[in-house]
Design goal:
The longest helix is centred in the middle third of the chain and has 45 residues, at 12-56. It contains two helices and no strands. Helix content is 93%, strand content 0%. It is mainly alpha-helical and 57 residues long.
Length: 57
């Protein structure tokens, strides 16, 4: 009974799981932010390329 009681009160694994969840949330938010920025940058570069192409004639 003592090993089971010790196992149930051990919280070291809980901290590891919390860190994994935190790291995965940071990774997900970073990926989402980079996706938004890349779409905005793509649109800006396309409009710039169209302006340069029209000016070069």
């Amino acid at each position: 009974m003592r090993p089971m009681n010790s196992f149930l009160h051990d919280e070291s694994g809980t901290t590891a799981i919390e860190y994994v969840m935190l790291a995965s949330m940071i990774a997900l938010l970073t990926l989402a932010g980079l996706t938004v920025l890349s779409v905005a940058a793509f649109g800006r570069f396309n409009s710039l390329a169209a302006g340069v192409g029209a000016a070069g004639g």
